[in-house]
Amino acid sequence: MTIQDFLQIALFIALLIGLTPIMGNFMSKVFNGEKHFMLPVLGWLERLTYKFIRINPDEETNWKSYTFGLLAFNLAGFLFLFLIQVFQAYLPLNPANLTNVSWHSAFNTAVSFMTNTNWQGYAGETTMSYFVQMIGLAVQNFVSAATGIAVVIALIRGISRKSTDKIGNFWTDLTRATLYILLPLSILFAVVLVSQGVVQNFNSYETVQTLQGTQQVLPMGPAASQIAIKQLGTNGGGFFNANAAHPFENPTPFSNFLQILAIFIIPAGLTYTYGRFVKSSRQGWTIFAAMMILFLAGLGISLYAEYSANPIFGNLPLMEGKETRFGITNSVLFSVVTTDASCGAVNAMHDSLSPFSGMVAMINMMLGEIIFGGVGAGLYGMVVFIILTVFIAGLMVGRTPEYLGKKIEAFEVKMAIIANLSTSFVILVFTAWASVSSYGLSSLNNAGPHGFSEILYAYSSAAGNNGSAFAGLNANTLFYNLTLGIGMLIGRFGVIIPILAIAGSLASKKTTPPSLGTFRTDNWLFIGLLISVILIVGGLTYFPALSLGPVVEHFLMNSAITF
Amino acid sequence: MKTLIISLKIFLFFTVLTGVLYPLFVTGIAQVVFPAKANGSLLINDNKKIGSELIGQQFDSTIYFSSRPSAISYNPLPSGGSNYGLTNSKLKQQVIERKQHFIKFNQLDSLSQIPAEMLFASASGLDPHISKQSALLQVNRIATARNFNVAQKQQLIACVNRLTEKPQILVLGEERVNVLLLNLELDKIR
Q: Testing the interface with B: which of A324, A557, A558 to mutate, by most B Cβ within 10 A?
């Protein structure tokens, strides 16, 4: 690595830390209903929304109504997206005359975009019409992200309120997240992306005569508008098959840098919003610090693995599946950020990463996407681990566990465990099933332990709602479309529902004022405990599976064994 | 029931807003402010569209600079990489073959260090760039194939130097040369 490589990383971290309070402050104003600078610009649109759907934005509900609204809204989105895919040939804006999508692929894709996973079993430029990309996929990019933000805001309200059963109004939170946060940032970002060369048009595919005299068909489309929200909403579903490695999707190192930053700014900002809501910015920064430490650890291991020599290729830089303009450092940085944050966009082919780099990506997803994490999803996933940490610490010293003045009791711990187990269940059970069945194994692109890694990666990605892949695996089959689809549903709603239940339960509790005996949750000791619990409870579950995949592959590679 | 109706209505509202108005709005701005870029940075030569500045093309002729290996032979429908893991024997074999080919094709010393991007396939299969070093290694072969004299060969090297892009904003990304732009300049050397 050169000084320039370190400078890029340092610049990224510095900007992230700088933007966190700005974003966080703004978001807390939006969701508290305070005055903010976007109100004069877009306030009319918010009022129009409420008028159209005929609700009173200030009327708050209990957690059950909140959850029901969320589920009904997601169901509507799922059905619509499913239907426009299976009938796309009869719909407009299809200049490439693409055919109807198969029912199981449409199911998988509809679930995938509704759950903010954006796993793609298909190739965008040869499968989805502009109509489906815009009216279907891009819309879910916005609303699935807004759903995640709404859930975490409801949870934060639950923690910061006392003796009430109200945790907010889902429609209001959804509307505000979309209108004031996602939409303006996306417009700004999309225009910057076009300035770098990302395409944004409705032209038909362009046929050109290459310099050597052959024909090349260049895909076109409204890509920039979709890519902007795909990064900001930690969705990650590419407009083109190669995702952010495609020169039309990510043309320059500058567009690449902004795309990486865009993944993290909302999740990082939310930690600050959290601090504002619970009236202690230290609590927010504590969470930020734990996330940053885990991020840096993953990045360090991944970079070390990619820059290490191995007996198969000697000292040759490992450029397989990487683009010249990004080089190794930017590819690794992207891979760590995108898997930390449940984004799943890729600017390098993860299948061709060195074994330990691929493993870092998998662990990031297996921990439940809590290292900054998906928009909203990262922070509420982290709160699950905070509850477990407070509970375990309470057991060790023999006191009733408390968090921010709220007693953590059996109900909260049970819900936290359900949320935690949902992910593990999907990853381990489905991976085992696919590994011993012919319809699971026939999709592999690599033999040996790397083949197993392809399967393990796929279900980790589905359960964590990430969406990136070891893309050699041919996942567009009946078996994978269905099991991955179900995995995504469990990984999303198996966490959201327990989280909202925790929010409701905490909101109804009284607050005990802090005393000398209160266990502090805003210092380095707590950060250390939290990270330990994450690694032990979250990580150890997967150690046996990982040792069969990337770990054994690493040692085989170092003995120059190929398959 | 009331919740279901609200959810359908708000879904419709956001579909129109984020699925129709938002992309149209961005397209409007893009087409006015950056029309060439929004339409794919197309290159026109003799009134013919010959490609996009951003999308790599297959070059295997002796009179042009070669581009990187591509898992999809530079056919963009659809884009993608090989997805071979490092312990895949096919990858190992490909790297050996590509190295031998590059050395033979460019009449290089068999012990020459060949830059990694010429031995490994890119992620998109459409990588438009190679490193400056890879371009310079090809200069002799091209000069011979085109019967260039010493002055023309100097011009060729100057071309490579001129088209080498530095990291953006001083630190971002890698130094690189766009192969298609380079080959277009190459055709202009008389």
A: A324
Provide the residue range defining the domain that includes A119: 21-207+217-274
Q: B87 to chain A: which residues are within 8 Å by CB? A: 312, 355, 446, 448-450, 553, 556-557, 561-563
Which pair of structure tokens corresponds to residue A196? Answer: 């770098």
DSSP A333-375: HHHHHHHHTT----SS-GGGS-HHHHHHHHHHHHTTSTTTTST
pLDDT band at A443 (very low <50, low <70, confident <90, very high): very high
Q: What is the pLDDT of residues A221-263, one digit of tens each?
A: 999 999 999 999 999 988 899 999 999 999 999 999 999 999 9
The DSSP secondary-structure symbol of A200 reads B
Nearest-CA residue of chain B relative to A321?
B123
ipTM, 2 dp = 0.96
The tens digit of pLDDT for each residue in A291-328 reads 999 999 999 999 999 999 999 999 999 999 999 999 99
Q: Residue A421: name the closest of A490, A337, A327 by CA.
A: A490
Residue of A76, A163, A74 lying closest to A496 (CA atoms): A74
- In a domain, residue A83? The reply is yes
pLDDT digit string, tens, across residues A197-208: 999 999 999 999
B65 within 8 A of B130, measured Cβ to Cβ? yes
Q: Do residue A553 and residue B184 have CB atoms under 8 angstroms apart?
A: no
Type and span of the H or E element at B3: helix B2-14
CA angle B184, B186, B190 (to 5 degrees): 120
Closest residue, chain A, to B114 (C-alpha): A316
**What sign results for the dihedral spanned by CA atoms A291, A296, A301, A302?**
positive
What is the C-alpha to C-alpha distance for residues B125 and A445, in angstroms, rounded to an integer? 17
How many angstroms separate the CA atoms of A128 and A106, rounded?
10
Overall number of domains in chain A? 1
Q: Give the whole-angstrom CA distance, residue B74 versus residue B78.
A: 10
B2: Cβ contacts below 8 Å, ≥ 6 apart: none
